[in-house]
Design a protein that fits this description.
The complex is a heterodimer.
Chain A (H helix, E strand, L loop, with lengths): L29 H12 L10 E5 L14 E4 L5 H11 L4 E7 H7 L1 H10 L4 E6 L34 H7 L4 E6 L3 H13 L4 E6 L11 H4 L4 H4 E3 L7 E2 L5 E6 L2 E6 L16 H9 L7 E8 L5 H16 L3 H5 L4 E4 L1
Parallel strand pairs in A: 1-2, 1-3, 3-4, 4-6, 5-6, 7-11
Antiparallel strand pairs in A: 5-11, 8-9, 9-10
Chain B lengths: L10 E4 L2 E9 L4 H14 L3 E7 L14 E9 L12 E4 L2 H7 L8 E5 L5 H7 L15 E5 L1 H8 L7 H5 L2 H12 L5 H11 L3 H20 L5 E4 L8 E7 H16 L3 E5 L6 H8 L6 E5 L3 H13 L3 E6 L1 H17 L3 E7 L16 H6 L8 E4 L5 H16 L2 E7 H5 L1 E5 L45 E3 L14 H16 L16 E8 L3 H13 L4 E6 L1 E3 L5 H6 L1 E8 L5 H9 L4 E4 L8 H15 L1
Parallel strand pairs in B: 1-8, 2-5, 5-6, 6-7, 10-11, 10-12, 12-13, 13-15, 14-15, 18-19, 18-21, 21-22
Antiparallel strand pairs in B: 2-4, 3-4, 9-16, 14-20
Helix pairs in contact in B: 1-6, 1-7, 2-3, 4-8, 6-8, 7-8, 9-10, 9-14, 11-12, 17-20
The chains are: A alpha/beta, B alpha/beta.
Chain lengths: 338, 619
């Protein structure tokens, strides 16, 4: 908050995006890694620091704005998309980021999430998915796996969980991506791609809660097995994975399946196309143990951006009707008494 | 046609005040008939007051009691304050409309009916065992059974319109007849028709012909022997227009944003009776207005709060059920100290209640309906036109004190209309906002020494990057703080900031004696009835005084002194006693509640009777 901090966008560094607040997540929390990667990316995007705004709801992830030295608003449980919408409609020039979690975005704020995606407001949504309620100390979340034993489900959860990407696709999101807290480089790349997308970018970040749900994504992230369990998507490239890059995804009729690669089936392997909503749907549904977990940009299409439509209508109204207050007062039948 | 009225030959009688109620099926176009008669009366120079009364169902089955829609108009040569207690004239388009309104018509009142609508089918739907036109049950009224349906059909027999379209012109026949009966200027009605149907020559022609047929029927039929005339009222000079509360509120918000130099942002979700504000503002984008129809009430206020953070004059509009849903976000606005206007157009509750009927039962919710110590400013408009000034006052306070402000209106004000003396724009308060841009010495919760308000900084301002949120803030820095003493300091500071606004409230205006036996204290839409009642009591020689409150939190600083100067304080409210409870708690006085909870405004005579009873008890 001092003048010394004013810098050209190109000269900003990660340090410029670290606030003076002590970070208070639990030691070992996946949120630290996400924060660090986002702070690394922000200086590179060519945006003046004062034009960034981080808006969050409630939950562990939603403390994020306090730790980023930009404008920030820590709002209400589930309501960040609504508040961000008003902000972005008022100041379209700002780069608005919504930081949320699986409970915040998918339970209490589910309605706002689907509507911000439907409208395609130009914001970036980072959903930290740890499949648990951390801040309230360990209840199951809308992404918890069936049968999960937590404080509020001592006999195991009977809820069917959401697949966040499928939900977002159902809401007609224009950008879907998945990344992982511990995959630093991948996370940075995805965040950059999310920023580059015009419209609402929805990024699911798989995140470990080492206190209440430790190992939430071990089957995806463990060093020894991750090559077998991650499908790293690259635009225009075949969907091949495995330590020996010896497995691929192909279609068997209307269904995808994992096949062992050989010279006869290489041409049958699906090629990633982020413009294809059907493919996005299939990728969103691929879950372990049958499939590897797809990560990367799953879907990225263009659709008119909400706030631009709003601005355009306002411009047209001004051109057509001017906007004279006296004229507004005297609208309709007016009479004069002398 | 423009000189048509000069040729009318029947005797004309002058009358002081007339109250007409138009009632029919909700598809009969009674609202349109009423508003057009109103516009003609305003141009005739009368003082006017109107109240539409429509069912919650858009088109209940035709001919049923549930589908009756009404519009009452009071027009006078003297100053009036209400749409009138009782109609002098009831225009009923079918048996159901007659049945549900007849009890309000005094003996000797004029009853104008569409004769053919009183057929077996309609009588049955309305629950009449016998036809009231013939069974003598209407003998104590002056009944005019007119063949409205047949005469309209006759007038339009070669119009080429379908039977259904022809019948939809009945309301303009009725309007023509009433325009003749009360000698209204017809030019504004013809001009309206031209504007409304200008693009459809067949409909323009048909409605114009139906209107004129009604007019000429009055003149030529033996049914009516005389015309009535209400001469122009003595009204303060100036330019006027007729305005509903919701419309005045919209114009007030736009004017306020312009005076503040800010864009106007409305985040809202459709709800009766507030939706017209969303509709109206959505048609005024040229005034730098952004309207956002949100996915729900919570997102409506959430978006408004986000817009306030971004530097807009932020507004959310709703009614009671929406207020419940918005309260958490309003608490965040209290905590983050951002300006926000919450318009609550009250309706009958609890729950869905009476969506299209009026009530004042949200006052305590506005004052206290948030968890934690969450003080907010509460203002109430007292008449349709006053919604304009109250909107400007709400904006001024919200910005100056960085606080949410509730603006209470209700269904009666929202849809009721009265002539409005248009203000001069230069006379409106100027409260141009200057956002803070200077980084030196800045803290998010720095306080202005006088107002205790914090600086408004818009994201995008270099060097002032900061974070706000719902967690308790440390004094000055705004950093999260759970320190016990800091919390108490912040709670007291937020309370003191709001309480301090009292210093800006002008001295309480007392109508009548400065002290005495009875003081009638009101707030909101009871103003019209109370004012008319107090005038009537003054004419009867009773010493009664009146105070009407716009500022409900904080209350006027002199209010306690004023109240204590009277032996009795009577508080008429359309609730179970909200303000009376507040006055008792704040001033330890024995405020007497006078409560009506019928979804309808007070009648003037009800207040007159109650005050007289109070005076008699004393004697």
């Amino acid at each position: 908050m001092s003048i010394a901090n004013l810098k050209e966008p190109g000269k900003l560094t990660k340090k410029d995006f670290e606030s003076d607040q002590e970070v208070r997540w639990c030691p070992g929390c996946g949120d630290y890694a996400i924060l660090a990667q986002v702070q690394r990316v922000l200086p590179d995007l060519g945006i003046p620091r004062e034009n960034y705004v981080f808006v969050s709801g409630i939950g562990c992830s939603s403390r994020f704005p306090y730790y980023v030295n930009t404008y920030g608003f820590h709002t209400l449980h589930g309501r960040a998309p609504a508040i961000a919408t008003g902000l972005k409609l008022t100041r379209p020039e700002l780069s608005v980021w919504i930081v949320t979690g699986d409970g915040d975005a998918l339970s209490i704020g589910g309605n706002h999430l689907i509507h911000i995606l439907r409208r395609n407001l130009d914001v970036n949504i980072l959903l930290f998915n740890n499949r648990i309620y951390g801040l309230t100390k360990g209840q199951y979340s809308p992404t918890s796996e069936p049968g999960k034993v937590t404080k509020s489900t001592p006999d195991g959860s009977v809820d069917n969980p959401f697949k966040p990407l499928v939900l977002a696709l159902g809401a007609e999101a224009t950008f879907l991506a998945r990344t992982i807290d511990v995959e630093a480089r991948h996370l940075q790349d995805v965040v950059r791609r999310a920023h580059a997308h015009r419209g609402a970018s929805f990024v699911e970040i798989l995140q470990n809660c080492n206190i209440f749900n430790d190992g939430a994504f071990n089957d995806v992230t463990d060093r020894d097995i991750k090559a077998e369990h991650q499908l790293v998507l690259e635009e225009g490239k075949p969907m091949i994975f495995g330590k020996e890059r010896d497995k691929g995804i192909r279609m068997n009729g209307m269904r995808p399946e994992v096949v062992q690669l050989d010279s006869t089936n290489e041409s049958e392997i699906l090629v990633h196309d982020s413009k294809n909503p059907v493919l996005a749907y299939l990728l969103g549904h691929m879950t372990p143990p049958e499939f590897p977990t797809p990560i990367g940009v799953i879907y990225d299409v263009d659709r008119p951006v909400y706030e631009e439509g709003v601005q355009q209508q306002m411009r047209r109204a001004r051109e057509k009707r001017g906007g004279n207050l006296d004229g507004l007062l005297k609208r309709g039948d007016v009479w004069t008494v002398s | 046609m423009s000189d048509g009225q000069t040729t009318f030959t029947k005797e004309r009688q002058e009358v002081e005040t007339v109250v007409i109620r138009f009632v029919g099926d909700s598809g009969d176009g009674m609202q349109l008939t009423g508003t057009q008669f109103t516009a003609a009366s305003a141009l005739a120079g009368n003082d006017i007051g109107t109240l539409p009364d429509f069912p919650a169902e858009i088109r209940a089955p035709a001919g049923t009691l549930a589908g009756v829609s009404g519009f009452q108009l009071n027009f006078s040569r003297s100053e009036i304050f209400t749409p009138g207690d009782h109609p002098d004239v009831l225009v009923a388009m079918n048996p159901a409309a007659l049945k549900s309104n007849l009890e309000d018509l005094p003996t000797g009142g004029m009853l104008i009916l569409d004769q053919e609508a009183f057929n077996e089918q309609n009588l049955k739907k309305a629950g009449y065992a016998a036809n009231p036109l013939t069974d003598g049950s209407l003998d104590r009224y002056r009944v005019f059974a007119v063949d409205i349906t047949r005469l309209t059909t006759l007038a339009l027999k070669d119009s080429g319109l379908s039977n259904k379209q022809v019948l939809r012109c009945k309301n303009f026949f009725t309007l023509g007849l009433m325009a003749w009966l009360y000698h209204r200027p017809i030019e504004p009605i013809l001009a309206f028709l031209a504007e409304r149907f200008g693009k459809n020559a067949a409909l323009l022609d048909a409605n114009t012909r139906a209107f004129k047929a009604g007019l000429f029927f009055g003149e030529t039929s033996d049914l009516f022997t005389m015309q009535y005339e209400v001469p122009p009222a003595t009204i303060a000079p100036g330019t006027y227009r007729n305005v509903t509360g919701n419309s005045a509120l919209c114009i007030g918000l736009i004017a306020a944003a312009e005076r503040a130099g800010l864009p106007l942002f409305l985040g809202s979700y459709p709800i009766t009776p507030a939706s017209d504000i969303l509709h109206d503002l959505s048609g005024h984008k040229e005034h730098d207005v952004v309207t956002f129809q949100a996915e729900d009430e919570i997102a409506g206020v959430g978006a408004a709060l986000g817009a306030a953070f971004g530097g807009a004059l932020a507004v959310t509009t709703t009614s009671g059920p929406g207020i419940d849903l918005k309260s958490e976000t309003i608490g965040l606005a209290v905590k983050t100290e951002l300006p926000l206007i919450i318009c609550d157009i009250q309706r009958g509750g609890p729950s869905t209640g009476l969506p299209t009927k009026t009530e004042q039962a949200d006052l305590l919710a506005a004052l206290y309906g948030r968890h934690g110590e969450a003080p907010a400013v509460v203002l109430a408009a007292c008449s349709p036109a006053d919604c304009f000034g109250t909107a400007i006052e709400a904006a001024r306070i919200a910005i100056k004190y960085m606080t949410p402000v509730y603006l209470l209106s209700d269904g009666y004000l929202a849809n009721g209309a009265e002539p409005w003396l248009l203000p001069k724009i230069d006379d409106l308060p100027d409260f141009r906002v200057e956002f803070r841009t200077d980084p030196s010495g800045y803290y998010p919760y720095l306080r202005d020494a006088e107002t205790l308000s914090r600086p408004w900084v818009v994201p995008g301002t270099p060097g002032l990057e900061h974070r706000i949120g719902g967690l308790e803030s440390e004094y000055l820095t705004g950093n999260i703080s759970y320190a016990p003493a800091n919390h108490e300091q912040m709670v007291r500071l937020r309370a003191k900031k709001i309480a301090g606004i009292a210093r800006e409230i002008p001295p309480t205006k007392i109508i009548g004696a400065e002290s005495g036996k009875v003081l009638v204290v009101g707030w909101g839409s009871t103003y019209g009835s109370i004012t008319a009642a107090v005038r009537s009591l003054h004419r009867d020689g009773l010493s009664v005084s009146q105070v009407h409150l716009r500022h409900l939190n904080p209350l006027p600083p002199d209010l306690g002194d004023v109240l204590r100067r009277f032996e009795h304080v009577l508080v008429p409210e359309m609730n179970m006693g909200h303000l009376s409870r507040v006055l008792r708690a704040e001033y330890l006085i024995d405020a007497i509640g006078f409560n009506k909870i019928q979804g309808r405004p007070f009648k003037v005579e009800e207040i007159v009777t109650r005050v007289k009873k109070l005076v008699e008890e004393e004697a």
